[in-house]
Amino acid sequence: MSALFENDEPFENVISIENKCTRLNLNENIYGTFAEIGAGQETVRHFFRAKNPKGTIAKTLSAYDKDFSDAIYGLDPQHRYVTEYRLKSMLQYETKLIEKRISRIKHPNKMFFSFANTVATIDWAKKYKGHGWLGIRFQREPRQEYSEIILHVQLHENSAAHQQISLGAMGVNLIYAAYYQSDDPKLVMQHLYDHLDTGKIEIDSINFTGPIFKEVDNRLMSLHLVKNNITDAVMFSEKGNNILPANVLYKKNLLTLRGSFRPVTNLNLDMFRTSRKLFLQEKDVDKENTVIIFEMTLNNLKAEGEIDEKDFLDRADLLCASGHTVMISNFQEYYKVVEYFSQYTKAKLGLVMGVDNLEDIFNEKYYRQLSGGILEAFGKLFFKSLKVYLYPMINEETGEITTSKNLKVHPRMRELYKFFVDNNRVVDITDYNKEALKIHPRKVYDLIVEGNPEWEKMVPKLTAKMIREKNMFQKPASAKSSH
Predict the structure, then answer these.
(1) Domain ranges across the chain
(2) Does Nucleotidyltransferase count among this protein's keywords (predicted)?
């Protein structure tokens, strides 16, 4: 298995699943319940096979029948069973029950936990690969308020039996990490993959909450999922918590703006305003069923080599404060974004881009790795109902505005380009703010670093206020002097 994280331990030094269970079982103060729905009791099975299972297992339950599950945990508002809501209901119910049934007077040093999962494995026709929610609610000190680690997984193996084995291993890894590695959430994430790899099971959402994790920013945890190739894309809401992409994207009309957002400028907001207006005018696009996503790629974040976590959080804070849903991805090419979205929706898709981005899309050098070259990429990019909303570019010396009508592409690409423009797959944004065209995001950032107040005219008022009050995008003094 290849290393997922920097400074990974060699595979042969990773503690075995059996030894993890044994260590937990022999700790007389760690005690809890296991509730596993949909994929068998794969996690608790490991604890039963290890030494002294009675030391850890208070109860194990598989409420496989839906009526039994509803009777115990209550109805999910959407009448679904493989959901975060169902998982949280299970965790909360089971911890309340163990607190009620195990005497604190008799067991003053017990640290309780509830582990739960709700999973749908691959179907017999192999049409749906399967997915699930796993979580642990636990104490690391007696009587402590509970902390939680909750994650969503996509299952990639082609048999239910293999998926169950992987889920069992990840469940053990999660419980062990909660008790012995949770001082460092990144270490937790690393060790969730002990004896596993992302080709088998993919984590696409994870949240750490509670007193142990009060200093954790879950957006950083999202970033590390993408950075370490655990998943291709993650999303977080305006509240800053990680959200499951499938829940956000499912059957929605999607409009996406890609950028570095370092910081959000008046240019970005004008692109958002004008493209949103056009997108909502499209046939069958209902405002209530439309999601607008601000996307940053890993390349957007690697402005100067490695990703700077503070710099990332500064950008994220500004986007969240403006009420936007944010996606972090490792999709360099736009067609990969469209492929990703197409897994979840057949509704309308829109990409907002500037003229320079559209020029890049029609450059053949970016598609040499594809057997079908640029034609294959365009077949994926302009899949069904996708449109590009093109924001113009100004030549500040001549005042000339470049749109789809006068954009120059390579002679070999002219007919292909003309086909998409003539068929209304590239739509010019005309209701733009001409002053916004003159804003260069990199220049705005440089002015902030230099301490030149001119940048304040180029960003929204809320953005300017937050940058000033929180000293965002400030380099250490040593870094400034080296420029």
Answers:
(1) 11-216, 247-438
(2) yes
Enter the tokens of residue 381. 């990019």
Please, what is the Cα angle at 241 between 236 and 244, to 5 degrees? 55
Q: Closest Cα to residue 157, out of 118, 128, 129?
A: 129
pTM (whole model) above 0.85: yes
Amino acid at 335: Y
C-alpha distances out from residue 208 to 135, 212, 214, 437, Å: 10, 9, 9, 41
Query: In 132-254, which residue ranges form alpha helices assigned H by DSSP?
Result: 160-180, 185-191, 218-227, 245-249
- Work out the angle at residue 456's Cα, subtended by the Cα atoms of residues 477 and 353, and round it to the nearest 5 degrees: 100
Per-residue model confidence as pLDDT tens digits over 72-106: 999 888 888 999 999 999 999 999 999 999 998 99
Residue 305: predicted pLDDT: 67
Cross-strand bridge partners of residue 242: 236
Pairing of strands 233-236, 386-391: unpaired
Q: Omega into 77 within 30° of 0, i.e. cis?
A: no
Return the structure tokens found at 92. 């909360």
CB 183 within 8 A of CB 215: no
How many angstroms separate the CA atoms of 42 and 26, rounded? 20
What distance in Å separates the CA atoms of residue 102 and residue 387, rounded to the nearest whole number? 60
The pair of structure tokens assigned to 88 is 């949280």
Q: How many degrees, rounded to 5, is the angle at CA 338 between CA 336 and CA 343? A: 100
- Least Cα distance to 204 among 226, 176, 228 occurs for 226
Q: Does domain 11-216 have CATH number 3.30.230.70?
A: no
Q: Which of 187, 231, 238, 244 is nearest to 212 (CA)?
A: 187
**pLDDT for res 302:** 79
| pLDDT tens digit sequence for 22-54 | 999 999 999 999 999 988 899 999 999 999 999
Q: Are strands 325-329 and 201-209 parallel, antiparallel or unpaired?
A: unpaired
CATH number of this structure's domain 247-438: 3.40.50
pLDDT in tens, 172-212: 999 999 999 999 999 999 999 999 988 999 999 999 999 99
